[in-house]
Amino acid sequence: MATTESEPRAGIEGFPALWQRVVTAPHAFFADMPLTGGLGEPTLFLALCAAINAVGHLILGAGVGNMILSFVGQMIAAFVLAALLVLIAQHLFEGRGGYEPTFRVVAYAWAPLIVYWLPGVGRLALVYAGYLMLRGLERVQAQDTTRAALTLVIAVAVLWVLAQAGRPIGL
Q1: How far apart, in Å, are the Cα atoms of 34 and each of 15, 37, 100, 104?
Q2: Is 160 inside a domain boundary?
Q3: What are the C-alpha distances in Å from 81 to residues 36, 89, 110, 128, 140?
Q4: Is the Cα torsion angle 5, 8, 129, 39 positive or negative in sign?
């Protein structure tokens, strides 16, 4: 399988270089990111980021159950968020991208969340992940910054409401 500049090597062995490129050169990464090619590589990248984050939660004493919940929750949230982004971008802001390129953006933009488990630093990682998502959405949805930001804010708000609806009362 041929690789692109944005995906130096497929699989786990290429993860560090790919992670570094996403985090340190987001404009170039998203400009070069292929819009097609399947969900396999971005899902593997997302799973590796989610696994590192989940292990971090375990290190901080969250327990195995919470570690698994963290991993599964992050994976499900990425797939749902990508769908919400497509719906909102296309129906409210004339977005042009489909599910696959939007999921690719979400999967790669979640790169900083490998440190989400660290107190303090995790919140900054979340903000930077939002920035990365914004840059990716601009490209794949062919939107200006304002429309991409509104798409992202609305989608995250809907995802937050859905997450709150799934929690038992009192948590």
Answers
A1: 17, 7, 10, 9
A2: yes
A3: 18, 12, 11, 16, 15
A4: positive
Domains in the chain, number? 1
Q: Residue 83 domain-assigned? A: yes
Residue 7 lies in a domain: no
Sequence length of the chain is: 171
* 2 occurs within a structural domain: no
Entry pTM: 0.84
Q: Using one digit for the tens of pLDDT, what is the confidence trace for 78-118?
A: 999 999 999 999 999 988 889 999 999 999 999 999 898 88
Range of the domain at 144: 12-165
Three-state DSSP class for residue 167? coil
* CA 59/CA 37 separation, integer angstroms: 35
CA 10 distance to own-chain centroid = 18
